[in-house]
């Protein structure tokens, strides 16, 4: 925005990402990044040989071998998934793609006069990301994929009316705001939506703490406020701290 550019931001939604990890592909990637044969063999033992079944009341299904997924809740799982998708940021040709474990975003800054060309670039890059995910057995949910344009009000008003994208048979239209890693971003980076939701969340918790305030000592109440309110209040504050004075007064 400081450089008079608009940024297209696409928040990709991977469906059941950890459950989609293909074991042979992951083991090949471990070999490729330099893991020794003994380490690869250890991970093969860790991942394979597991099975699952369904149970309803007293009825139990037959057991089924698990050929995909990394164990849910395991400390190693986010690291293994990051290794599994380490080539995903290389898929787009024109845009940048960044990932935090299974949360990925694609973004591209452009001048208003280049909006038509940028739309074609985004369309091409989405197709390349789709192909990469398909090779990795990952499924992107187009209905939950969020796409919005960030810029000043004047810049956004001068954009072409049709900046929609086609993705996996769905039309993705720009949205006014979207949540990314717990932070609600909007088209002007004003953080109005984030502050409004943040204030509402904190104000709903404070009366609940107040109801039980006579049951605990001051130190315990202080811990409750710190854990349930202050932590939420300060989350990502370094990102949204340049919001308006009006929003700061709300807080």
TrEMBL record:
<dbReference type="InterPro" id="IPR000477">
    <property type="entry name" value="RT_dom"/>
</dbReference>
<dbReference type="InterPro" id="IPR043502">
    <property type="entry name" value="DNA/RNA_pol_sf"/>
</dbReference>
<protein>
    <submittedName>
        <fullName>Uncharacterized protein</fullName>
    </submittedName>
</protein>
<dbReference type="Pfam" id="PF00078">
    <property type="entry name" value="RVT_1"/>
</dbReference>
């Amino acid at each position: 925005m400081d450089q008079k550019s608009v940024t297209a931001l696409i928040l990709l939604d991977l469906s059941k990402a950890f459950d989609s990890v293909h074991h042979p592909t992951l083991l090949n990637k471990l070999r490729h990044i330099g893991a020794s044969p003994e380490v690869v063999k250890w991970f093969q033992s860790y991942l394979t040989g597991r099975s699952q079944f369904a149970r309803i009341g007293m009825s139990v299904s037959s057991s089924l071998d698990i050929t995909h997924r990394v164990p849910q809740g395991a400390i190693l799982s986010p690291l293994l998934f990051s290794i599994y998708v380490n080539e995903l940021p290389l898929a787009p040709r024109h845009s940048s793609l960044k990932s935090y474990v299974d949360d990925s975003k694609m973004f591209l800054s452009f001048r208003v006069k280049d909006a038509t060309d940028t739309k074609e670039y985004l369309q091409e890059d989405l197709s390349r990301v789709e192909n990469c995910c398909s090779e990795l057995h990952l499924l992107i949910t187009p209905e939950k994929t969020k796409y919005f344009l960030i810029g000043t009000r004047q810049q956004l008003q001068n954009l072409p009316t049709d900046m929609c994208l086609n993705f996996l048979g769905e039309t993705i239209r720009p949205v006014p705001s979207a949540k990314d890693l717990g932070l609600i971003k909007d088209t002007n980076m004003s953080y109005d939506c984030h502050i409004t939701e943040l204030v509402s969340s904190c104000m709903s918790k404070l009366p609940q703490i107040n109801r039980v305030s006579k049951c605990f000592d001051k130190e315990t109440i202080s811990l409750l406020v710190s854990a349930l309110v202050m932590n939420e209040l300060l989350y990502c504050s370094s990102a949204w701290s340049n919001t308006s004075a009006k929003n700061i007064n709300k807080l």
